[in-house]
Amino acid sequence: MDRLGLYRVMYRIRRFEERVEVLFRSGKIPGFVHLYIGQEAVAAGILAHYRTGDYLTSTHRGHGHALAVGVDPKGMMAELFGRATGVCRGKGGSMHLFDPDKGMLGANGIVAGGIPIAVGAGLGLRILERGGVVFCFFGDGALGRGVLHEGLNLAALWRLPVLFVLENNRYASTTAFEESHAFRVEALVRAYGIPYAQAEGSEVEEVYARAGALVEGVRQGRGPAFLEVLTYRFKGHYVGDPERYRSREEVERARAADPVVRYRERLLGMGYPEGDLQALEQSEEAILEEAVRYAEESPWPEPKEALEDLFAEPVGDYPWEERI
Ligand SMILES: Cc1ncc(C[n+]2csc(CCOP(=O)(O)OP(=O)(O)O)c2C)c(N)n1
Ligand SMILES: [Mg+2]
After folding, report:
1. Is 109's C-beta closer than 6 angstroms to any atom of ligand 1?
2. How many folded domains does the chain comprise?
3. The whole model's pTM is what?
């Protein structure tokens, strides 16, 4: 296990997200932003098993997943800024970050929207006999959507190479998990004949180990697997959320088990020198600064680019074409 690698990914995500919050509040990032702060160990621990040729589907809270599979922080930050140099040329933004070169099949503004994409990618891998695993992340809110059930059923039936990852952070927007689900997650997953495991999301090595065991089975062609990670988001649902549905004390209790701080302490306890951790952190700070500078200095897309890279061919008269 590459312990410093795990810490680096968590640290990169944490600092990226902290900066995004500041930039969003200062009006530099348009739209909505959902931060991954508090959940870093989930992406880092699981996606340490991600290999070239694998695929990833994500959610509206997708920055952490993208960074963990190596999407370039510069291209990501520029995308969040809506600039032409962004990974989607400024058309995707935070909730629709794509990077097919990294197998990243998109953040997704539709709750559970990544699930059918992941199952389809899994089917594609099977048909092409390509090997590879699809990592499919979703939140507890997705448990209430029909496509989750359809996706589990088809993946199990066709033994598709999909690792389903439920990031159970106890809330879907303002609704607590206990208020919205009549079933036990493990019972549901086992009903489809899919192996299930659970991990504590504040412990990156535990997440890594549990994910590793499941990914191995999926890679060997034994069909899908399901990992539920118990986690917590330290920030509001979106930047600006008044957070009336949970108490400050509850948030503080969760913060006491901060996965990034905890792992740093653990590494020091294992004998990793403080200086090594600081050097790693400094190199990450430089990468982040470079990403912000790149985004700020990048041009806006030209209006005519709005009609480029579309899957649907424009037909008929488009009166706006004359205007741009
Ligand atoms: C189909 C659909 N319904 C509702 C929404 C509005 N919405 C956006 S995020 C969200 C909550 C998602 O909660 P969860 O899946 O637990 O993810 P988390 O925000 O906790 O990461 C909702 C209801 C949406 N985007 N898509
Ligand atoms: Mg949730």
Report:
1. yes
2. 1
3. 0.96
